[in-house]
Amino acid sequence: MNWDNMPLLVILVLSVIGNNNSVSLAVLALLLIKLMGLTSWFPSIENYGLNIGITILTMAVLTPLAQGRISIGEMLVAFKTQAGLIAIIIGVIVSWVATQGMYFLKASPETTTALVVGTIGGVCFLHGLAIGPLIAGGVVAMILNLLNLFKQ
Known about the structure:
Blueprint: H1 6-17, H2 21-35, H3 42-66, H4 72-79, H5 82-107, H6 112-125, H7 132-151
């Protein structure tokens, strides 16, 4: 038996148990690439996958603008609200924190395993998503909830 695939198989099982299709599909794609002998693709996936994923995510977030469902006027009004101002601040902070995280992982690649385990656990068992802008939105929501507690 080839034990090299065991970590991916464990993650696949966890993602199926946690009912997370994104992680399941990602693991299945990697296993398929590996089993087909296309391991020469791995460096490109590792080097460019994050940028491609962020680009696709950004496209998804900006699609309502492209479709005209959000006007410039609505955007400007949103920037003047409490939620809008907090969203801008949190967006800047999370972007900076993510950059620091990239530097940290490059300097300490051994921690990647712990990060993957924690992320998979959160994604699979807490129904989380491993996506930065959504995390920023969650932080904004938490801050707004805290502010609303103090208003009462």
